[in-house]
Write a structure and sequence with these properties.
- The complex is a heterodimer of chains A (115) and B (111).
- Chain A is an all-beta fold and 115 residues long.
- Chain A is built from no helices and 11 strands.
- In chain A, a hairpin with a 2-residue loop joins strand 5 and strand 6.
- In chain B, 0% of the residues lie in helices and 53% in strands.
- In chain B, strands 2, 5, 6, 10, 11 and 12 form a 6-stranded mixed beta sheet that branches.
- The chains are: A mainly beta (115), B mainly beta (111).
- Chains A and B meet through strand 4 and strand 9 of A and strand 6, strand 10 and strand 11 of B.
């Protein structure tokens, strides 16, 4: 596609349920990033992928969070046993290669609400 | 570890005036890029300007320019002739091993 696509755009889930958030990066982009943005706040780094590998998983808030990327393309962020504090906008971005010299292109985000 | 610090949670500027947003960063990498992104209420992140660390000349894009002080690890954004459409959250970002963002500065433009 022309840009980074995230789905769903909005998700309301009950506390304790599992959710999957999907990111389709721009075709050919090898680097993929996930961020969390709470209301009116900055971008909290969660994880990034270079190809299918995630060199740094230290940003994941807890072991309830996991992410994978297959075929060097689509990525899924999974949150198990959701809690109310997980409510936020989850942003995905991709870039042609690892961060140092190219901008990150962002999707529109998934707004997650845990009730 | 790479960190980005924006010490101004909120800034305000009069239309047509100039405003400067501050950013400091830390990295052990010698090659890196710095970025300013704008996030309007639509939530879409828009690249405003980028700076290559190996270039001494400050980047400029129309009304937007940066003051890059490599030794001080400082990267401020200057917006000249501010317009109502400039009102948004502005994020400073460091692209080294990965891409890290600051906490953001909310800019208000007064008519």
């Amino acid at each position: 596609g022309a840009g980074v696509s995230q789905s769903p755009s909005n998700k309301v889930t009950e506390k304790g349920k599992d959710v999957e958030l999907r990111c389709d990066p721009i075709s050919g982009h090898t680097a993929l990033y996930w961020y969390r943005q709470s209301l009116g706040q900055g971008l909290e780094f969660l994880i990034y992928f270079q190809g299918n590998s995630a060199p740094d998983k230290s940003g994941l808030p807890s072991d309830r969070f996991s992410a994978e990327r297959t075929g060097g393309s689509v990525s899924t962020l999974t949150i198990q046993r959701t809690q109310q504090e997980d409510s936020a906008v989850y942003l995905c971005a991709s870039s042609p290669r690892r961060g140092e010299n190219t901008e990150a292109f962002f999707g529109q985000g998934t707004r997650l609400t845990v009730v | 570890a790479q960190t980005v610090t924006q010490s101004q949670p909120e800034m305000s500027v009069q239309e047509a005036e100039t405003v400067t947003l501050s950013c400091t960063y830390d990295t052990s990498e010698s090659d890196y890029y710095l970025f300013w992104y704008k996030q309007p209420p639509s939530r879409q992140m828009i690249l405003v300007i980028r700076q290559e660390a190996y270039k001494q000349q400050n980047a400029t894009e129309n009304r937007f320019s940066v003051n890059f002080q490599k030794a001080a690890k400082s990267f401020s954004l200057k917006i000249s002739d501010s317009q109502l459409g400039d009102a948004a959250m502005y994020f400073c970002a460091l692209g080294a091993n990965d891409m890290r963002f600051g906490a953001g500065t909310r800019l208000t433009v007064k008519p």
